């Protein structure tokens, strides 16, 4: 098989605590990653000698994490062939829902299969972390409890929940939010068991800063908070609300102040199901 089309799912951080700053400037965190059925689609055709991708308005091809992931796999394994990659982008960029990281992970998984380079998931996650802190969760392909910078992952079972996700009309840089002086960097460590007992007690340390810097985020959170407990995902800009079937989901979405998505929580990534990595 030389041609393959795969989905690339998004994620939510059900909570996000920053627990310390490391000597290298990165921050330690604790989080629960929930995979959701908001997908980009990537097509891979390895009947090409070079690496190439269709042009994306927002990202130069040489900066695209998809190309960076493919190059990294080539470099690591010495594989000499190429691939033509087509990306259909649906996941909002800079939204805190991990689209770029997910694209990188889908690329590593797909090309490791098509190029028959034979790396294990642990080896692919080791490559992925060089591209971004969120890549390993998409290589694992399961909901997870995360520590370290997001690379220490333990797969967890989460209740089946649906979400409304809003994308405020602004772009948030992860680096910029981490560099804010007012960021709480010393949240006491917790455990997955403690989180499960009382999930609403765990929040997102970036929520106050994102709302202050971006009124669009404050507006989206205030809107969703009328219907339950809304949260920021990652460093934003997206915010999400867990919803029950009896709520008027259509009305909540129609009256939202910005773009809205209805998403199911996934138990595992469809990429792994499609590639037989069960
Ligand atoms: C904090 C999270 C939670 O999911 O935010 P989102 O990106 O999803 O919003 C992620 O782990 C982010 O991962 P990712 O977006 O891949 O970040 P990277 O590109 O690795 O890092 C961008 C910059 O953010 C800072 N950074 C990032 C992660 C971290 N644990 N500590 C940091 O201090 C560093 O300054 C780094 O240069
Ligand atoms: N394939 C890609 N899809 C999305 N963003 C990408 C991609 N490749 C590189 N990027 C860059 O990665 C950054 C973070 O994008 P993304 O992962 O969508 O956001 P977030 O980390 O907030 O969830 C953006 O600034 C974008 O320029």
From TrEMBL:
Residues 206-254 form the GHMP kinase C-terminal domain. InterPro entries: GHMP_kinase_C_dom, GHMP_kinase_C_sf, GHMP_kinase_N_dom, IspE, Ribosomal_Su5_D2-typ_SF, Ribsml_uS5_D2-typ_fold_subgr. The keyword ATP-binding applies. Its EC number is 2.7.1.148. Signal peptide: none annotated. It catalyses: 4-CDP-2-C-methyl-D-erythritol + ATP = 4-CDP-2-C-methyl-D-erythritol 2-phosphate + ADP + H(+). The active site is at 11, 134. The keyword Disulfide bond does not apply. Residues 64-142 form the GHMP kinase N-terminal domain. GO terms for molecular function: 4-(cytidine 5'-diphospho)-2-C-methyl-D-erythritol kinase activity; ATP binding. It comes from the Bacteria. Catalyzes the phosphorylation of the position 2 hydroxy group of 4-diphosphocytidyl-2C-methyl-D-erythritol. PANTHER family: 4-DIPHOSPHOCYTIDYL-2-C-METHYL-D-ERYTHRITOL KINASE, CHLOROPLASTIC. Belongs to the GHMP kinase family. IspE subfamily. This is 4-diphosphocytidyl-2-C-methyl-D-erythritol kinase.
């Amino acid at each position: 098989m030389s041609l393959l089309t795969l989905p690339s799912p998004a994620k939510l951080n059900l909570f996000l605590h920053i627990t310390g700053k490391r000597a290298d400037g990165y921050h330690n965190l604790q989080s629960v990653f929930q995979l959701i059925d908001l997908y980009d689609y990537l097509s891979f055709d390895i009947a090409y000698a070079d690496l190439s991708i269709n042009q994306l308005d927002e990202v130069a091809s040489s900066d695209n994490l998809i190309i960076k992931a493919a190059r990294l796999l080539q470099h690591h394994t010495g594989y000499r062939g190429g691939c033509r990659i087509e990306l259909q982008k649906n996941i909002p960029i800079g939204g805190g829902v991990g689209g770029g990281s997910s694209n990188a992970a889908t690329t590593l998984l797909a090309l490791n299969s098509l190029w028959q380079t034979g790396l294990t998931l642990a080896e692919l996650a080791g490559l992925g972390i060089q591209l971004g802190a969120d890549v390993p969760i998409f290589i694992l392909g399961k909901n997870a409890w995360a520590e370290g910078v997001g690379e220490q992952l333990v797969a967890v079972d989460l209740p089946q929940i649906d979400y409304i996700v809003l994308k405020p009309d602004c772009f948030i840089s992860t680096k910029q939010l981490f560099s804010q002086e007012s960021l709480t960097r010393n949240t006491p460590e917790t455990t997955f068991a403690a989180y499960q007992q009382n999930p609403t007690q765990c929040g997102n340390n970036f929520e106050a800063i994102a709302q202050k810097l971006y009124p669009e985020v404050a507006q989206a959170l205030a809107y969703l908070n009328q219907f339950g407990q809304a949260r920021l995902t990652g460093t934003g800009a997206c915010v999400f609300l867990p919803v029950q079937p009896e709520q008027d989901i259509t009305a909540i979405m129609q009256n939202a102040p910005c773009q809205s998505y209805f998403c199911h929580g996934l138990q595992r990534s469809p990429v792994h199901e499609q590639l037989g990595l069960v």
